[in-house]
Design goal:
The complex is a heterodimer of chains A (109) and B (115). Chain A is mainly β. Chain A contains no helices and eleven strands. With 115 residues, chain B is mostly beta strands. Classes of the chains: A mainly beta (109), B mainly beta (115).
């Protein structure tokens, strides 16, 4: 079955601390993985995708096929990073995404 | 407008009533998606349109749910005989093409409450 698991509902860190939001997936095909973010009172938006191997707002994510993981990392968290983060798996042509349950990141001053 | 527009933003209805939720995608976006998000959960796929046709409706929970996109632009999600369990935020998204880019542009959602 195709599934995305985000084990932490809430992650709370202090400003300047490193952050890792965990994501594991289950998929028999070649995965395409993404991180979406929803800031307070804003709509859900794409943060980054694994195929681009990009760093956005200091965040990076590496696809580890052996561990079926796509963890999101940032070395120094900022207060403005506080938001809901969703890991998503693309399972078919057309962009159909399967989302995880989300992790709320809270960065305290 | 520049983004995906959804109406109404809030809908309160009684159990058993019929509801329509509307989505106006970004101009030129050929793909349109409906998701449902219950409290504390991630978005759950319902249906995807490519142009006027439903390319994948595997996420519709039962035959009370139906969606149309008659002219390949605006879409309407229709829910018959609403139940309390239908209460959720219904999200619409659109994307530029059918490529597997994963970049969906979401609306703000329609919050449905069934009493």
């Amino acid at each position: 079955a195709q599934r995305v698991t985000q084990p932490e509902k809430l992650l709370s860190v202090f400003k300047g601390a490193p952050v890792e939001l965990k994501c594991n997936y289950s998929y028999s095909g070649s995965p395409e993985l993404f991180w979406y973010v929803q800031y307070s009172r804003q709509r859900l938006q794409l943060l980054l995708r694994h195929i681009s191997r990009e760093s956005i707002k200091g965040f990076t994510a590496d696809l580890n096929k052996g561990e079926t993981s796509f963890h999101l990392k940032k070395p120094f968290a900022q207060e403005e990073d506080s938001a809901m983060y969703y890991c998503a798996l693309s399972v078919a042509q057309g962009g159909k995404l399967i989302f995880g349950q989300g992790t709320e990141l809270s960065v305290k001053p | 407008g520049a983004g995906v527009s959804q109406t109404p933003s809030n809908k309160v209805t009684e159990k058993g009533k019929y509801v329509e939720l509307r989505c106006d995608p970004i101009s030129g976006h050929t793909a349109l998606y409906w998701y449902r998000q219950s409290l504390g959960q991630g978005p759950e796929f319902l249906i995807y349109f490519q142009g006027t046709g439903a390319a994948d409706d595997s996420g519709l929970p039962n035959d009370r749910f139906f969606a149309v996109r008659p002219e390949g632009s605006v879409s309407t999600l229709k829910i018959q005989r609403t139940e309390r369990g239908d209460s959720a935020v219904y999200l619409c998204a659109s994307s530029l093409n059918t490529g597997n880019t994963g970049e969906l542009f979401f609306g703000e959602g329609s919050r449905l409450t069934v009493l």
